[in-house]
């Protein structure tokens, strides 16, 4: 039956079910556990205060809780120390921070390397950096399975490569990228490596030691945490190469009218009041995730994913994009416009994503105007898939 023992930890699931809604859009954002909601309310009910500034008790409590999340993140990811963790306002902001923070290292004709499957968040900051500096954006092609083509990468990554920025798990194709073989190609050339873990970290690959990258980015709201918080891990030696990018309160050690001296990471990259409640609630979310049997959770997700692929493959005219390995599947149906199909699914209460999933260039390469994406969270179960596929069959009866 593929039931999820964690479903009841997410109160929204019962509410959505009562409304006849089936949530299969967790790759866009995940529903939230009660532990997060309690922490968020607890923070506001017990007194809000700014962090790292005042000495009063409420401020000290807020600062301790805020820094507690940084410590948990460092442990969770296997960072060397909490000060390798910068808290941002989202994964997108973290990637923009990098593209601005590394700008001074990029010269005319240098190369910034991304892959053809990047989310706009890990494409446009590098594209714009290349334009600002007269550098070249090099795009690694994919093989037929939807993974970065390693032999092409070996040809394209070279002595002018300054940064390699790639996703861990594609938000469109659901393919794990061969980072263990790809990243060393860039490191061997002295380039910095950036991994966009916004999807990958949710589905069990959060071990920085195994990844061996210089920077790693994740998005709290996809990891069952609150919105408005992102995480940038940086190896200490890589963080030291970043220039400050946003300026304001608490990131500065000494300020005069004409000059200023800034803090190093992490505080030097956290200008202004951070999303305090969200960061504290992310800490509670991590505590919640720590309580669960991680291998049971991954087996559950894998079983659901296998079923998702079987059901899609069993339907005539359905074409999967790539060969999804985890968490999601994007597909088109021959002779059917994805927007029409999405409309009929949504009318039947199936929450799916349709369109180009913030990866327009990839869709252009695939020669596809758009696709439907079904994505899974740890709270989904076999009933969700039954409802989705009943709805899909009814929709296809109308459309074909
Ligand atoms: C692979 C990937 N990278 C980056 C992002 C951007 O995350 P956020 O919108 O939380 O900043 C997303 C969001 O969909 C994503 O899927």
From TrEMBL:
Named cofactor requirement(s): pyridoxal 5'-phosphate
InterPro entries registered for this protein in UniProt: Aminotrans_V_dom, Aminotrans_V_PyrdxlP_BS, Cys_dSase_SufS, PyrdxlP-dep_Trfase, PyrdxlP-dep_Trfase_major, PyrdxlP-dep_Trfase_small
Keyword Cytoplasm found: no
Keyword Cell wall biogenesis/degradation listed: no
A Pfam family reported for this protein in Swiss-Prot or TrEMBL: Aminotran_5
Domain of life where this protein originates: Bacteria
Coiled coil segments of this chain: none
Annotated GO MF terms: transaminase activity
Domain Aminotransferase class V: 22-387
Enzyme class: transferase
EC nos: 2.8.1.7
Catalytic activity: (sulfur carrier)-H + L-cysteine = (sulfur carrier)-SH + L-alanine
This protein's UniProt keywords: Aminotransferase, Pyridoxal phosphate, Transferase
Record-stated family: Belongs to the class-V pyridoxal-phosphate-dependent aminotransferase family. Csd subfamily.
UniProt cross-references to PANTHER family, sorted A to Z: CYSTEINE DESULFURASE (PTHR43586), CYSTEINE DESULFURASE 1, CHLOROPLASTIC (PTHR43586:SF8)
Full protein name: cysteine desulfurase
